[in-house]
Inverse folding.
């Protein structure tokens, strides 16, 4: 470490003014790029936009690294300035780590890095708050000793304020500072989330389509083998096939006789969508269990790719996740038509999360696609969660002749990997629309690489059922958007 510091001392240092100007410019660009990435995140981002954003973040990291090196050299002579430089560098490197993980679609790691960074940021901020309160308290104490004038006893930075009492004033001031800082940190965190939420939107792909089944035809091709003319009195014996031997080749032809979607627009998509809109697969995060089971590449993404191939609709290039409370960030009319929830352990939702999920289903016209990832315990947990979210609605079996099992594919039976919660799909219906579809048999495992060892027929039907549910939620959302437009 000492050798490294000695090497740093030998490096040329830019003039302070130049360093400050460069830092100010890069910091401004970094703030704008971070706001765009965290809060706006348009799906229409092109390659150029992403490259520019990455270059800004890279420049910010280089500047932060430079200031961290300076802080290492000056930590003895300028401890306060060094600590400030280290704090700023931590924020930049934390943001860069989350960005890289997100860009590489390491969804679980992205979430973990973001949460750990938030906790560390709270602790770092708390240390600065304690330091600030202590410095202010000492300052007012010196003023009180040096000045004959009485100071205001309402100032919270002065531990002689009357509301700190006569005993243990310093302790009371420290507790007040801790509570106040925690409140401000939480309020800022929520406020930034709400600001971002105003801009976080979900847009469906523009287009149209018909609510019909994909036509499946069986083509019978008759192949007549070559005829042989044989002299029955010949001394040469060989097997003579029947004169009219016919080989039937049955080839199933699945073709799109229509556009998959809803509405009168051009191309496969939905009325109410936009040219930049894409179908996205969003998994719901929750506490208490394993929401990230088989998350991302190899399962959810396989289903999203299959949906694109089967419907020709535009889809996002990666899957995503959101917490239950982040559903509040999507405005009415621009929220996800469907979110996916799976796992095999417990589901723990707070009252605010229950309210957010209920609002998503009823006010924002969303839908939950539930999937039992591997236990009867999760089955009970899911039903219990839905009783809290929709206490007046009872689940009912979803019949095979329902539209969700017929469009665009006819599902002859409920395909599953293992009947963890039975062999019948359950649904919760509000105003004639399925707001929740619960699959009891780990359909997500059939989407995964290897398909959990089930037969090709089963995982094909699982892909078909997934396509039906995604299309159903988006079609119903499109109908709702059209109805809202007519009523305005």
């Amino acid at each position: 470490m000492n050798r490294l510091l000695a090497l740093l001392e030998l490096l040329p240092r830019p003039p302070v003014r130049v360093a400050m100007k460069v830092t100010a410019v890069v910091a401004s660009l970094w703030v704008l790029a971070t706001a765009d990435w965290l809060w706006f995140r348009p799906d229409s981002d092109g390659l150029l936009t992403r490259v520019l954003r990455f270059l800004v973040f890279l420049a910010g990291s280089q500047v932060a690294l430079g200031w961290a090196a300076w802080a290492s050299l000056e930590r003895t002579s300028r401890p306060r300035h060094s600590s400030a430089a280290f704090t700023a560098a931590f924020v930049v490197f934390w943001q860069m780590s989350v960005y890289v993980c997100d860009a590489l679609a390491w969804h679980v790691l992205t979430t973990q890095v973001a949460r750990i960074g938030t906790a560390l940021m709270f602790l770092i901020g708390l240390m600065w708050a304690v330091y600030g309160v202590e410095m202010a308290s000492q300052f007012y104490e010196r003023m009180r000793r040096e000045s004959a004038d009485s100071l205001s006893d309402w100032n919270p930075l002065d531990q002689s304020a009357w509301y700190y009492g006569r005993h243990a004033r310093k302790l009371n001031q420290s507790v007040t500072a801790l509570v106040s800082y925690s409140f401000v940190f939480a309020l800022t965190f929520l406020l930034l989330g709400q600001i971002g939420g105003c801009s976080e939107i979900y847009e469906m792909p523009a287009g149209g389509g018909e609510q019909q089944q994909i036509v499946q035809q069986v083509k019978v091709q008759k192949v007549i083998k070559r005829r042989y003319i044989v002299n029955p009195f010949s001394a040469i014996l060989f097997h003579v096939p029947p004169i009219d031997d016919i080989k039937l080749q049955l080839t199933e032809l699945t073709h799109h006789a229509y556009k998959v979607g809803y509405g009168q627009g051009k191309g496969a998509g939905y009325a109410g969508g936009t040219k930049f809109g894409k179908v996205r697969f969003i998994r719901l995060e929750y506490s208490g269990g394993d929401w990230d089971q088989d998350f991302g590449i190899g399962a959810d993404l396989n289903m999203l790719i299959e949906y694109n191939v089967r419907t020709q609709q535009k889809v996002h290039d990666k899957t995503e996740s959101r917490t239950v409370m982040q559903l509040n960030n999507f405005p009415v009319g621009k929220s996800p038509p469907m979110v996916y929830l799976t796992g095999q352990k417990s589901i723990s939702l707070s009252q605010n999360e229950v309210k957010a999920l209920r609002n998503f289903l009823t006010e924002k016209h969303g839908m939950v696609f539930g999937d039992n990832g591997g236990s009867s315990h999760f089955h009970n947990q899911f039903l219990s969660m839905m009783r809290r979210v929709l206490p007046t609605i009872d689940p009912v079996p979803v019949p095979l002749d329902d539209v969700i099992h017929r469009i665009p594919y006819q599902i002859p039976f409920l395909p599953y990997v293992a009947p963890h919660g039975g062999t019948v799909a359950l649904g919760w219906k509000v105003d004639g629309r399925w707001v929740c579809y619960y699959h009891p048999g780990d359909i997500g495992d059939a989407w995964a690489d290897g398909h959990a060892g089930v037969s090709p027929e089963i995982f094909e039907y699982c892909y078909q059922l997934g396509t039906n549910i995604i299309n159903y939620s988006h079609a119903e959302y499109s109908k709702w958007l059209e109805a809202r437009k007519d009523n305005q």
Summary: Residues 272-487 form a domain with the Rossmann fold fold (CATH 3.40.50.12140). The longest strand covers residues 215-224. The longest helix spans residues 107-146. Residues 217-230, 232-256 have pLDDT under 50 and may be disordered.
